[in-house]
Amino acid sequence: MSIMKFDAVKIGDTLGPQEIHLSKDQVRTYARTCGMDVPRFTDDEGARKEGLPGMIAPGNLSLAMLSRLVTDWIGQSGARLARLGTTYRQPVQPDHTITLNGFVTHTEPAEKRVEIDVWIENEDAERLVIGTATANFCHAQTVAVSEWQRQISARLASQKRFPLEAMGQSGAGKVAFTVDRSGHLVSDELIESTGFSCAGCCGDCDGSPR
């Protein structure tokens, strides 16, 4: 699966649609797990006594489903969901099929930020919950750089060699090197060495004392 990059995101790109059949048992389980074991979320008759059409889904459940819509779209890019705000226009009722939708409304290249409109609609295409989300791809770049640095450090550490003749002694070596965007070694140079030391990364030396 390809990893999304900020430069590939365009205004009008869509999220979803994702169809979900929300059952009453699912809503009850969620409400009770979250400490919201009240009639409006667990019992039709009790909800009607409150003036509702029947059981409804907690607002936090709608928020969670829309959050999942955005994070599924982000995927393995390393970006993060920085903000999600919602407005509840009509109750989300269980035992119905709902659809999650979204689309990109704005991109901010300087900050690598994406603004998204999201919503939940019922079978009649009525928007029950609407919202806006912000995805921050700047975080993805930071993660990528950190991972690249980690891999370079691990590679250098795995290639270190200590001369057998120098057992019991110590030394330090400084190596300058250049790699291209693909990670291939372009040039290398041992620029400083004290005692018995060799980084062993260039492959041009045999680990003998310097």
Structure description:
The chain has about 210 residues and is α+β, with helices and mostly antiparallel strands. The chain has two domains: about 5-140, Thiol Ester Dehydrase, Chain A; about 155-210, no CATH class. It has five helices and seven strands, in the order βααααββββαββ. The strands form two sheets. The chain has a five-stranded antiparallel β-sheet with strand order 1-3-4-5-2. It has a two-stranded antiparallel sheet with strand order 6-7. A hairpin with a 4-residue loop joins β3 (about 95-110) and β4 (about 115-120). The chain is elongated, with a radius of gyration of 28 Å. The protein starts with 13 loop residues before the first strand and ends in a 15-residue tail after the last strand. The mean pLDDT is about 85.
Secondary-structure element sequence?
EHHHHEEEEHEE
Name the quaternary structure: single chain
CATH architecture descriptor name of the largest domain: Roll
The helical percent reads 25-40%
Report the strand count: 7
Main beta sheet strand tally, sense and closure: 5 strands, antiparallel
Structural class computed from helices and strand pairing: alpha+beta
Overall geometry: elongated
Instruction: Give Rg in angstroms.
Output: 28 Å
Number of domains: 2
- Enumerate the spans where pLDDT stays under 50 for 5 or more consecutive residues: none
Could you name the CATH class of the largest domain?
A: Alpha Beta
The spatial strand order of the largest sheet comes to 1-3-4-5-2
CATH topology of the largest domain: Thiol Ester Dehydrase, Chain A
Give the CA-CA distance, first to last residue: 48 Å
Q: Please tally the helical runs, counting DSSP H or I stretches of 4 or more residues.
A: 5
CATH superfamily of the largest domain: Hotdog Thioesterase
Strand content: 25-35%
